[in-house]
Amino acid sequence: GGNWHLAKTLVDALRDNNDPRLSKYAKPSKGGTIQWAKPTEGERVGLFDKHVAYMTGILDSAGATYTKTSDGAGGYTITMPENTNYIGQPTRLNGKIKPLLDRALWSEPSEVVVNQHNSGKPIFPFVVFTAAESHFMIAEAITKGLASGNAQSHYQTGIRHAMSLWDVSSADAENYIATESMALLNGSTDQNLEKIATQRWIALFTNGYEAWSVVRDTGYPTELSAGVTDSDIFVLGDTNGVYPQRHRYGSGPYNTNGAQVEQANSVQGPDKQATKLWWAK
Fold first, then answer.
1. Which in 55, 146, 268, 279 has the greatest CB count within 10 A?
2. DSSP line for 101-142
3. What span, in angstroms and rounded, lies between the C-alpha atoms of 253 and 278?
4. d(C-alpha 141, C-alpha 77), whole Å
């Protein structure tokens, strides 16, 4: 499908740490003139000011350049320079706030991610397991006291490999390592584990299932693992806002192998999205 946008958590992690992969992963928001019309009926009338405050908070936290002016009818006109701001779209937003989610606000994937075969260029290969991830996992093991070695050395080697995969120059990668605190394991054990997990998660861009596993296993990035609570803005769903931990079994397994499914449920926990798998407990 089309109309893809990068998530806020990912764009924030790249942009706020001067990560040179930002322009490799994403395009700047299209920008232009965007209308936030105030609704005249229904539940959204009373929620409009709250939704506008949430949306402008997203733009402000991204350091976006824009102006917001009254449209004379209770709504607002957002004017944003074109192809300038990197802004990720928040996840799990519900239909109540959807009318404010103009596609021009959000960063789309870069061309290398979405190239089609008929464009004359190959699509980006599916990432299964990389040298970068192996070094991040070694750094994690050392930080936890489960292996010997230099955690920061493996961590920074992982960063180099992860950036090289996306054609970031060696000079840019080395500058990032030399100047950004995100490239240093210089905090507490928990802080260092957070950096390692976040870098591993960033490096798994285009491999959504594996990135999801990192969040479930480590709890990082916390913006995702913390879940959501505000039903005026977010879809709480079957998990009541808790970060989803697994897929539910479909009707097929219950219909064809029901006894074994129930046996599995009795061991691993209820067949619910909020039930953690054994390796994430």
1. 55
2. --GGGSPPBPHHHH--GGGTSPPPPPP---HHHHHHHHHHHH
3. 20
4. 51
Yes or no: say if 268 and 275 are a contact pair by the CB < 8 Å rule: yes
Using a 10 angstrom Cβ sphere, with 0-12 exposed, 13-18 middle and 19 or more buried, the burial of residue 77 is middle
Q: Span 131-225: which CATH code?
A: 1.20.120.840
pLDDT digits (tens, 9 = 90+) for 12-68: 999 999 999 999 999 999 999 999 999 999 999 999 999 999 999 999 999 999 999
Query: Mind listing the pLDDT tens digit for each residue in 225-265?
Result: 999 999 999 999 999 999 999 999 999 999 999 999 999 99
Q: Is the pTM of this model over 0.70?
A: yes
Cα separation, 42 vs 30, in Å, equals 31
Are residues 87 and 105 in contact, defined by beta-carbon separation less than 8 angstroms?
Answer: yes
Q: Domain segments of the chain: what residues?
A: 8-117, 131-225, 245-280
Residue 175 CB neighbour total at 10 angstroms = 14
* In the chain, % of residues over pLDDT 90: 92
Task: Give the orientation angle of helix 189-203 with respect to helix 208-218, to 10 degrees.
Answer: 170
Type of residue at 84: T
The 8-class DSSP code of residue 75 comes to: -
User: Sign of the C-alpha dihedral, residues 191, 163, 61, 58?
Assistant: negative
